[in-house]
Structures are given as structure tokens and as C-alpha cells.
Design a protein that fits this description.
With about 500 residues, the protein is α/β, with parallel strands linked by helices. The chain is about 35% helix and about 25% strand. It contains 16 helices and 24 strands. It has helices spanning about 10-15, 30, 60-70, 95-105, 125-140, 170-185, 195-200, 230-240, 255-265, 315-330, 335-340, 370-380, 400-415, 430-440, 455-460, 495-500, and strands at about 20-25, 35-40, 50, 70-75, 90, 115-120, 150, 155, 160-165, 190-195, 210-215, 245-250, 270-275, 280-290, 290-300, 305-310, 350-355, 360-365, 385-390, 415-420, 445-450, 470-475, 480-485, 485-490. The strands form 4 sheets. It has an 11-stranded mixed sheet with strand order 9-8-7-10-6-11-12-13-14-15-16, with helices on both faces. Strands 17-18-22-19-20-21 form a 6-stranded mixed sheet, with helices on both faces. A 5-stranded mixed sheet has the order 1-5-4-3-2, with helices on both faces. α4 runs parallel beside α6 (about 170-185) and α12 runs parallel beside α13 (about 400-415). The chain starts with 7 loop residues before the first helix and ends with a helix. About 50% of the residues are buried.
Length: about 500
């Protein structure tokens, strides 16, 4: 239930104040009607719903269905006067901004009743988010309070909803619904990934984060449907720096100064972290171990040893990010250390060993240039002298540059490459695979295209000898593939790996 319902005229006033209304046909009796629900899903309609027309695949049939099911008015960038001549409407000039404002009003700015951390970066968002989840839950259990909420590229948990994620950062209405569920469940802390798409398209517009964290940025998400160029991508990332009380910035990033500048005059407090001297949260003495990494951290209030139970040297930066966020939230040191030591991240640097004990397979979500380079460099350091076999693919119709970037990196560092399906969507898998393969083969690297992901993983494991490390990247524990416009249930990479290693 929503604490307070608002009249339709309150929504129109808010949109008008923000210069978003192009036209309306609302009569006084409609303006005085209470909005009982807001939705952009024609299958999720209640009586007196204000319906939002949005989406690349939206058709007027969705609007007509919503009106039949109980919607009493609609918001759109397009007028459907011919198809729905009697329907009250609000025509707006920017649907993304409109959705954020409408969601904020409908849920009565419920986010103000949470302590929210937002994390952005090209790589490491999910891992840092989960490090924070473990840290906060250690602290909250000690306080005998409900565990924290999380919104991530892996899954979403808000006390009521516990689901696998489809978007790194949900649309504004879904996002505020998660906030509302968390508050209704008695949850105090929420940690979330904030993607460049969410920032560019205003999904978090109007929210003030208690802590915002900038991890890094590399060339990614450049396409006609995402960011036209790197400058647009960087600009989107920097939006987060201007809507936080406390900002945490990774000094290891080439764009740390840009982030610090974006936060200047807006954030109340800035905390830097990294392996460089001068960082407020400074890591040093990094020591890789068989099933984890130990390192020391010094700041103005402690100089202590920490341990994470995950491999991948790049995860030290993610841990330092989590320590800096925890420092900003005043989480006790004992809970930070305990949380990091226990932390495991689904589908991130998960190591599986064959029945014989002679072959290791790493399942990781690495899916862009930065994460690929980090994964290969870390693997070569942690498994010196071993050959590398990798299984991966690229998504359809977005981040088009990845096909060359990942193909080049795999061709340069791997000994054998298997290219396969990875959320091809509305683009043919073979077309994507052949584009990637063209770049891999420039390095005279052995390369196979096997569209069936299960078969690609099977062959990669079956043909690996005892001197090989196998990397399965891109999907982690995700249990769906995007085919066409639908998400189809499939076993996860972990399921496949466990099945085939049992035979090895």
C-alpha cells in the first residue's frame, strides 16, 4: 500500500513546473481524481491507473488493453486520439524525465527513508555491490535488524521481491517500487549499481544518494542505442557524482580528477581510495593466495590486514571501494573485515575444479574491454605458465565495439577461443560470432564458433589438458538468454561447468 495517494492535478502541476507538458485534454473532474496506481505494463493494471506509454516495442494495443483493464488516463509522447478518442491524456516532451518525476511523487519520495549507496563504473559494480551487501549484513545481523536490500546486474532483493535481474538499474517506476518495498519491510540500507544508461535516461533523477562511488571507466556501451561516443558515456557516469552526500573515488582511474571535479561543490564529503600513496583509503602489500587475496589498508583511523575469499587481483580495488563506502557510512571495522572475508559474488571469479583435481575452470561475468583485460592479466599472474582457453560471445545490437575489443584481447592472450551465443537478441548469433572471430584470427589464435553455448563449454573443458586454465565469461549464473525480444530460460554457465567437470 502507498501511504498517500495524489490527485491527477498534482501530477500535471509537477510536470508543468518542469516544462514537460506539451498538451492535455483533462477535464476538471478528471484532474480531481486520485491516481490509485501508475504503470507502464498493460498486464499490471489496477482501477484508476495512470498508464505510461513507453518502450521501443510499444504499440497502441497496449494502451487499449490498459484502458479496458482500469486505466483512466495516459501519459505519452504520442497522442492516440484516433485509436482512443475518449481517453484523457497528458502529452509530454520527455518521457524519461516524466517517469522519474511521476515515480517520485507516486511513492512519496520513499527513498528518503533509506540509506542508499550508488555504485558506477565500467567494471566491478556487481562485485562491489555484493561486497557491500555482505559487510552491511554482518553489521545488521549484529544489530538484530533486517538484512540490506540490493539492486544489481545479478539480482534484486528488497524484502519482498527476490528476482534475477534483467537491467543493471531498473526503470524509474520499478526502482521506486523497490525502495517502497524495502521501507515496508523495515530495511534501512540499500546498495545499488547505477549504470550509465540509468544516469543518461534519468532513472535516478531526483534521488540523493547517501554515498556514491566511482570505480573506473573504459570504452564501452558505444552504439546508436546507447552512447554515441566516449564523451557521452563519461558525461553520463559523472551525473552520479553530482547527486551524492558522500562521494568515493578510485584514484587508480585515469578519470579520477574528472570525478572529483564533478563532485566539487555538490558532495558534502569526498573519500578517495586506491593503491596509490595519498589515497584516503590506501591499499598495499597485496598477496594472492590459492582461494583469495590478502592485503593491508591504512587510513586516518586504522592500519589493518583484510582478506577476500575471491581470486582476481582486480578485486582488491573493488574491496577498497567497499571499505571506503563503509568508512563513509561509519560501519565498524570488525564488520567490514568479516563481511569481506565471507563475501562471494554469484558468477564472478568462481573457480571450479575437475574431479581429478587437475583442471580449474573460472566462471566470470567479464564482458567488456576493461574486464577482459583485467581477467587475462590476473589469470596470467595467478596461473603462470598455463595455457588459456576462453568461451565468450557478445550481445546483439548494442556495445558494438566489444566485438573487435574482445576479439583482439582474446586473440592476443588466449591459446584457444570458443565463440558462442550471449544474448544475441534480434541479431543473428552467427553474424555476431563471425565478426568476433575475424578479430581473433588476426592473432593466429585457434578459434571455433559453436553457437550452442552448452556445447561450446563442453568442448572447451573436454579438450583442455592439465596445463590449461579455462575461462567461461559473460553470463555467470544468469539463467536466461535473450533471443529475439524474449528472455528464454536456460541452465547457467555454472550448471554446465559442474556437469562437464564431473566427467573430467
Amino acid at each position: 500500500m502507498i501511504d498517500k495517494l495524489h490527485l491527477l492535478k498534482e501530477y500535471t502541476a509537477l510536470l508543468d513546473e518542469n516544462g514537460l507538458i506539451a498538451e492535455t485534454n483533462l477535464r476538471e473532474e478528471i484532474l480531481d481524481k486520485k491516481v490509485n496506481y501508475v504503470s507502464f505494463n498493460s498486464q499490471d493494471i489496477r482501477y484508476d491507473t495512470l498508464f505510461i506509454c513507453k518502450g521501443a516495442h510499444f504499440t497502441v494495443d497496449y494502451l487499449l488493453s490498459a484502458l479496458d483493464e482500469g486505466a483512466f488516463a495516459y501519459i505519452s509522447e504520442v497522442k492516440y486520439e484516433k485509436e482512443a478518442p475518449e481517453a484523457p491524456y497528458i502529452i509530454v516532451t520527455d518521457m524519461r524525465k516524466t517517469m522519474a518525476l511521476v515515480a517520485d511523487l507516486f511513492y512519496n519520495q520513499v527513498w528518503k527513508r533509506l540509506t542508499i549507496t550508488g555504485i558506477t563504473g565500467t567494471k566491478g559494480k556487481s562485485t562491489t555491490t555484493y561486497f557491500m551487501r555482505y559487510i552491511l549484513d554482518e553489521y545488521l545481523r549484529d544489530q538484530k535488524k533486517p538484512v540490506s536490500a540490493v539492486i544489481s546486474g545479478i539480482d534484486n532483493y528488497d524484502g519482498i521481491i527476490n528476482e534475477e535481474s534483467h537491467l543493471t538499474t531498473p526503470e524509474a517506476l520499478d526502482l521506486h517500487r523497490h525502495y517502497n518495498n524495502a521501507v515496508k519491510s523495515g530495511i534501512e540500507f540499500l546498495t545499488m549499481e547505477v549504470s550509465s544508461q540509468a544516469l543518461k535516461y534519468h532513472r535516478t533523477r531526483g534521488i540523493t544518494f547517501d554515498v556514491g562511488c566511482f570505480l573506473n571507466i573504459g570504452i564501452d556501451h558505444i552504439s546508436a542505442v546507447e552512447h554515441p561516443d566516449f564523451e557521452d558515456y563519461l558525461k553520463a557516469k559523472m551525473v552520479l557524482m553530482g547527486q551524492c552526500k558522500t562521494v568515493c573515488v578510485n584514484l587508480e582511474s585515469d578519470y579520477a580528477k574528472t570525478a572529483l571535479s564533478a563532485a566539487e561543490g555538490k558532495a558534502e564529503r569526498v573519500i578517495t581510495f586506491g593503491l596509490k600513496e595519498g589515497a584516503d583509503i590506501c591499499g598495499y602489500d597485496v598477496r594472492p593466495e590459492k582461494r583469495g587475496i590478502s592485503f593491508r589498508v591504512k587510513c586516518d583511523s586504522f592500519d589493518e590486514e583484510f582478506r577476500i575469499g575471491m581470486t582476481g587481483l582486480f578485486n582488491v580495488e573493488n574491496a577498497l571501494a567497499a571499505i571506503s563506502i563503509s568508512y563513509g557510512l561509519n560501519i565498524p571495522l570488525e564488520h567490514i573485515k568479516a563481511g569481506l572475508k565471507k563475501a562471494r559474488v554469484s558468477g564472478r571469479m568462481e573457480i571450479y575444479t575437475s574431479k581429478s583435481g587437475k583442471l580449474d575452470v573460472i566462471v566470470d561475468y567479464a564482458h567488456n574491454q576493461m574486464s577482459f583485460e583485467s581477467l587475462f592479466h590476473s589469470t596470467k599472474k595467478e596461473y603462470p605458465g598455463k595455457k588459456i582457453t576462453i568461451v565468450f560471445g557478445c550481445p546483439g545490437k548494442k556495445a558494438l565495439g566489444r566485438r573487435k575489443e574482445l576479439g583482439d584481447i582474446a586473440g592476443k592472450y588466449a591459446d584457444k577461443v570458443y565463440i558462442t551465443e550471449e544474448d544475441a537478441g534480434e541479431e543473428p548469433v552467427m553474424k555476431i560470432s563471425e565478426e568476433i572471430a575475424g578479430h581473433v584470427k588476426e592473432f593466429d589464435c585457434e578459434c571455433h564458433i559453436i553457437v550452442d553455448r552448452k556445447e561450446a563449454i563442453r568442448q572447451a573443458i573436454e579438450t583442455a589438458d592439465d596445463n590449461t586454465i579455462v575461462l567461461i565469461t559473460g553470463k555467470g549464473r544468469e539463467t536466461r538468454q535473450k533471443r529475439g525480444t524474449q528472455y528464454i530460460d536456460t541452465p547457467s554457465d555454472v550448471d554446465y561447468v559442474e556437469e562437464f567437470l564431473a566427467q573430467k
